[in-house]
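FIELD: query
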Amino acid sequence: MKRCKNERDSFVWFGRNIYNYDAIELKDKILETLMNDPDRYEIGILLGKQPNGSYVVCINIDMNGECKEKAKNKLVDVLTKYKIIYHLETTPTGEYHIFVILDKLTESLKKTTKIIFTDECMKNKNGKTYRGKIELLGANKPYPILIYNGIINDKEPFIVYPIIVNQVEQFEKAIFEFQFGV
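FIELD: result
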């Protein structure tokens, strides 16, 4: 999915919003637009249900410093333990996005927007300090998000790799262990 850089705060693409956007239906228009002005657009996806029936979610680690690294490492460890295939990228502000493709969403996962991390983590933004947070994006509603790999670095974006769908039960076990231990 693409959106115009000057429409950064607007979640509208080609006259559609996150609830009625259909890349397949708009394919020809999207391709023509991109070919005419390729440097004007960023790459993004719409988290949530995908055309193949799977779900893409993103764990957004929104904190700074050692705490951010500790949270990322602990998440990577539990995801690996439960054999969850994930894609990690660093944002321009140094935060982390962990993308996971799931076979379905459970009702409990649909209600999860925040993931508990017991450490007191902070986030500095615009000269102010806030409590850091870890969010689960795309599980409770569609959520547009930029993809940074391939734009800000030489890494390939996860969308170029084969789709490997994870079982939601294993993902929930990993998130539970991350939050509450074994």
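FIELD: remark
Residues 45-180 form one domain.
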